[in-house]
């Protein structure tokens, strides 16, 4: 079976496996992190057709025919996505949850280029951060929106 991952067609051998494990184990995309395995923590968040989903809760077969985007697929050549740039400027303490927060921010910003603090809070609260870096998460989403505006 084939998947469209980060703009490239990729052959996979285990379509019944969770997308998380196919991305990590078969395709070597380690920006997708395992956290809880039950869709609660958000570490495994990827985009399916620009929508943030928990890859531990979606089989690879369910992603067939849809555009899968991981942290590795956000940059445009050498230019980081605004969310990646914001988190690079203001990283979280341990970084384990960071990919999920970045992908959630990308999905939010694709829906609303200038989200309100309440929207940012609602989206950020969907992902867990064991280090308590929620203040930085909110700052980073706001900064990412600013970077995007500066670039356009």
UniProtKB/TrEMBL annotation:
**Keyword Metal-binding appears in the UniProt entry:** yes
Record protein name field = Putative oxidoreductase
* InterPro entries recorded: 2Fe-2S-bd (IPR002888), 2Fe-2S-bd_dom_sf (IPR036884), 2Fe-2S_ferredoxin-like_sf (IPR036010), 2Fe-2S_ferredoxin-type (IPR001041), Beta-grasp_dom_sf (IPR012675), Diverse_Oxidoreductases (IPR051452)
Keywords from the named record = 2Fe-2S, Iron, Iron-sulfur, Metal-binding
Q: Where is the 2Fe-2S ferredoxin-type domain?
A: 1-74
**Could you cite one Gene Ontology molecular function of this protein?**
2 iron, 2 sulfur cluster binding
What species was this sequence derived from? Kineosphaera limosa NBRC 100340
Keyword Oxidoreductase carried by entry: no
UniProt superkingdom: Bacteria
